[in-house]
Every structure is written in C-alpha cells, then in structure tokens.
Amino acid sequence: MSAALTGPPLARDESVEKVTGTARYAYEHGEPGGTAYAWIVTSPVARGRVLAVDADHVLRDDDVIAVLWHENAPRLGDVGDPVLAVLQSPEVAYHGQLVALVVAKTPEAAREAAAALPVQYEELDHDVVLTPDHASLYKPEKVNPAFATDSEQGEPDQAFDRSPVRVDHTYTTVALHNNPLEPHATTAIWADDGSLTVHDSSQGGQPVRKTLAGLFELDPGRVRVLNPHVGGGFGSKGTPRPNVVLAALAAKVTGRPVKLAVTRQQMFSLVGYRTPTIQRIRLGADRDGRLNAIIHEVVEQTATVKEFAEQTAVSTRSMYAAPNRRTSHRLARLDVPVPSWMRAPGECPGFYAFESAVDELAAELGLDPVELRIINEPEIDPETGNPFSSRNLVACLREGARRSGWRPGPRTPGERREGRWLIGSGVAASFYPTYEMPASARASADGNGCYTVAINAADIGTGARTALRQLAAEALDVPAERVKMLIGDTDLPEAGIAGGSMGTRSWGWAVSKACRQLREQGASSVTANTAEDIKALGKKHTRGAYGAQFVEVRVNRDTGELRVPRMTGVFAAGRIVNARTARSQFLGGMTMGLSMALHEEGVIEPAFGDYLNRDLASYHVASCADVGAVDIGWIEEGDEHLGGAGTKGIGEIGIVGTAAAVANAVHDATGVRVRDLPIHLEDVLR
Ligand code: MOS
Description:
Layout (H helix, E strand, L loop, with lengths): L14 H5 L16 E7 L5 E6 L2 H4 L4 E6 L21 E2 L5 E7 L2 H10 L2 E5 L18 E2 L3 E2 L2 E3 L2 H7 L2 E9 L11 E6 L5 E5 L4 H11 L7 E4 L15 H13 L3 E4 L2 H7 L6 E9 L5 E13 L20 E11 L12 H19 L3 H7 L17 H12 L11 E3 L2 E13 L6 E6 L5 E4 L9 H13 L6 E4 L16 H19 L3 E5 L1 H7 L6 E13 L5 E11 L6 H20 L5 E2 L4 E2 L17 E6 L23 H13 L10 H4 L2
Parallel strand pairs: 1-14, 12-13, 16-17, 21-22, 25-28
Antiparallel strand pairs: 1-5, 2-4, 2-6, 3-5, 7-8, 9-17, 10-15, 11-12, 11-14, 15-16, 18-19, 19-24, 20-21, 20-23, 24-25, 26-27
Helix pairs in contact: 8-15, 11-12, 14-15
The structure holds dioxothiomolybdenum(VI) ion (MOS).
Dioxothiomolybdenum(VI) ion binds next to loops.
C-alpha cells in the first residue's frame, strides 16, 4: 500500500445534517398519530421478587394502552442473555432492574403512569460492596472477551523478593458509567406480514437482528435494524440492550409502532458500567531500572444475573520485558447492576494502576520515568514470543517528551511553583490491541463516474462513514466526492460492530477490497468479504497501537483545586485515514481519561443498594472548562503486517494511560501519591 500514511482532514459527511438537526436518531422515527410510547419501570429494591402489579390502577387513564410485567408479557425465546430476557421472571437481582413497562398514547402519560404504577415486592438482603477479600470471590473461567484468567511466566514471587528495588502498592478505581449524549433508544414497527423493523441506537445492527430473531423466533431476514446516526456508545451500545427488546415487545402487544428511550437516570443501571477495581501491583527491578518481576492482581465485581469479567490485567502481560510475570483476575458476585463494556475495557483501569506503579518505580530508582519505560522496551512480545507487527512506543515517548517540553531526569516533586500554585508533569504509556472482524462490502459503479459503496457499518460519532468513503475513493482511484457511502442498515452487506477499536479497520478492509476488485474487474458491482484474508493474516505477530501521554497539572496549595492546563498525546496506530476525525477520537479518549482521573465517580450506597448519583448533575463528566489545551500527534507508521488498509484502530487508546499521567503529574506537583481514583481536593491537601 503506497497511499499516504495520514489521509486528508475531510469534514464528516453528515456534519450539516447533524448541526441542522435533520440527522434522525432512533427515537425520531415512527408514524405520527399511531405511535405509542413506552416507559420503563425499575425496581426500588436491590434483591427480591415482584409479588404483584396493579395495572388497573393506571389503565383507568384513557391514554394508557398497556402495562406489561412478568405475568402478562409474551414469552421470549432463549438467547442466553439474562439481561435481555425482559419481563420473564419475578426475580429482582439488582436495584434499577426493569420490572414493568407502561405503554401510552403520549410520552407524558407513559411517564406518569410508570411513576404511579403500584408494584409490590418481597425484599431480601443485598450485598453491593466490593472488598478485596469478599467471601464470594472466584476465578472466572475466562476474562473478556476470551483471555486466560491468570498468567504466570518465570518465578515472579522469587524474582520480586530478590529485586533490589521494589514497589508494592494497591490502586483502586470506582464504577464508571457510560453517558453517550443520545440515550439508548428504539422505535419498533411490526409490519402486517410479521416482519420487524427497529430504529435502534446501536453500535452494530447485526447482533441486534440476531438477538431479536432469537427472542421473537423469527427468521433473521425478517428483522431489519437501522442505525444511520448514533449519538455515542462507548461500548454501552455494543450489545443489544433491553430497550430494543421492550420496544419490539410493546409494539407486538399493542399493534402500534412503539418508541422507547431509556432515561438518563435509568442508564445508570440498565446499560452497563465499568466495574470498580482493586489492583495490587508489585514491580521488582535491578538498580539500573531493568524490570525482573511484574505481578498484577485484580479484584473486581460482577452481577448475580450475568458474569462480566473485565480483562483488567491482560495487556500488562505484553507491555514490558520483565522475565517473571504474573497476572490474575478474581470476581466478587454482588447484587449490583450488570457491569459491561466501556471504552478500552481492561486496558483503561489496568493501565491506570500499572502505569502509576511504573512511575512509583521510577521515583524509587531516581530515574526519568520516560527513560524507565524505554529501558524496559521488549524486542518481542514477552507473553507469546511473537514479533510485534510494529511497536513505536519509544518513538511516541520521545516525540511526546519533545512536544510537551518534558524536563529530562528524575521527577523532583513539589519543586515547581507559581505563586500559590504547585506545578507538575506526568507521563504514562498507552496501549490498545488491534482486532478485526470479517465483513462484507458492496461497491457499485453508478455509471456517471460515481460510485456507491454499501456496508452495514455503524458511525457512532467517530467519523467512520467519512473514513470509509476516503478508503473507497483511494481503492477506486477517484476523488472522494465521487463516492457515496451507505451504512447503518442490516439490508446492507453484513459487518461487525463499532467496538474494540476495530470498526473502521474491519469495514475499511472490506470496502477497500470490494472497490479494488471493482476497479480491476471493470464490473458494475462487486461484493467482497474479508473472512479468508483475516484467516490468512494469522497470528504470527502481536498487533497493537501504542501511545504516550504527557500531562501538566496545577494544584492550588490552599484549596487543593486541581487544573489540567495541558495534555499531550502521541500515538502510533498505523495509517491514519482522516487527520481531523482521528484527532477528534484521540482527543475524546484523552478527555474521558481526564474525566476518570478527576471527576467521574459512581458512588455505591450499601443500604440503598445501588449507585447514588444517577444523573449528570451528580455524576460529573469533564466539561469544556475542565479541559485545557490538548496537543495530539501521531507517528507516521507503515506496517505491512496489518493487512487491509493498514489501520490499527484509534477509538479506545486515547483513554488508556491518561488517568495515570494525571495522577503521576499530581505526585510531581505535590509529592502526594493518590492511589484511589478519582482524585479529590482533600487527597492533595493531605
Ligand atoms: Mo468499545 S467498549 O469496544 O465499544
């Protein structure tokens, strides 16, 4: 591939539609007049069972059409996901679990009836507090998506004990909740012929189609899922959610199109969240900084209804060249909402702890933390022994140090001041694995020098639609204006989800292939699939994106006020298809990482049995005023072992490492090492 390693900064194809409000989202469909509105009723008890629902009490309102609960809801097929088996059982396994659905002629009537619906519960004791020695701790069979739960190479304990320089600390992270701007929403419409159409806010229509087909016992071809515009997801829309099942169920029962949006408050219990973690890390090194031992032990939580095992320590296995390494994951089974995917699941909390520990080791050694990482750069993947397809962490560290004005040498905490402000800088490394999924794409010549390219990709705000059009134009060897992209519809050629940072990589591969074949064959339409290409690529190399983040913080000595005036992120993620949308992805990830470090905090309340803060007033997400200047750069990285269009994936790496860089900078500014996120003002005033 001789194409430029950084593609032109085209504006998003749908940018005018979005800013003029004409881009329609999942809730903005249906047939005015006939449409009904559904509202979810959730459990106020954390464990127990539903004894009775007094539907008649709300059905007296003429605007209320139906009330569904476990006793009257139609039976659903088994798709092996208890979260989607909605209204099938009286059991309540967590606070905020959905127990009933009200359908009405207006959203107001539905909301009012949902609030007034009398539901009787039997309430049982619950346990929602994660502790490092919880009695329910167990070793899951795998961690997500299918990694070994534990790993061990060499003799980590002995190597640690023998190391002249050691750090041994425990770090904790809290529950973090995905808050895409567009809530999870669906409009569901059954046709007279028994086929089902859903406009669903989803990171990928294919799994939604498959799930609905299984639940409603339909041929998948009879289910159509549309998601041309999606207002963010971060993983919470990577799998089908209860809203799509409930909307389809309500539409079936009432014979009307039904719209359903999960409220912001309900999102905190119904669409997954990142598990809190407790991570003990031990690093042992020689006096020159060479790592002998890495031990990373994780305790995290799952729900009783369904297991979710965050892969927190998995990427620690391949990061640095220590010969003796152990990682482990243990889960506590609690009466909590079901944790799920959130941007860089695993790497994000794992690298906060790991890259904080590396900084602590640098301080112990009296070394520049940038140099400590470079000293421990592995030649081959220490876990598998495979070569890296490309690994430019060192280049990212050096370029980031240069761009951010990093002062070489060991940190000297508390030394830099400006009036009442203490100033510090911190660094952390980032990593995210490169994945891919098979996909099909169709390229067609429209006959007038223009082309239409179709694939069931999902643009969740990343700019994927635009990037795919650029890749298509490149393979067709025509200007990008000549190409029209069709995405977000299960009637289009089959493709995987926008998740695991593999969307544009996987779809782009299929798009490039179809377009190249169309051009070479001179055909009018070609459909290409990448399953064989991905198989042929094999697993001979370790593939992943790397990055380095540099953060400057200012801490007020009197108030503890903490500001982040500057962040610098330099990444090595293969070819960058669109310089503008790529920058935006890195920037968004880093902002979310800053938010994790300083703001976001799901506060569990033991008696209440759930996270107390469940709106954007009490669950603080970083706002514009919290984010200073952010400088984004990348290494021009050609990698012939990636296949496809030579891209690695950029959606998640930006969040990895940011929180550690912030905490490390806070230490440099104040000399206070905060090991529990988020960092509060009172922590730095210690
Ligand atoms: Mo991302 S958590 O893989 O959607």
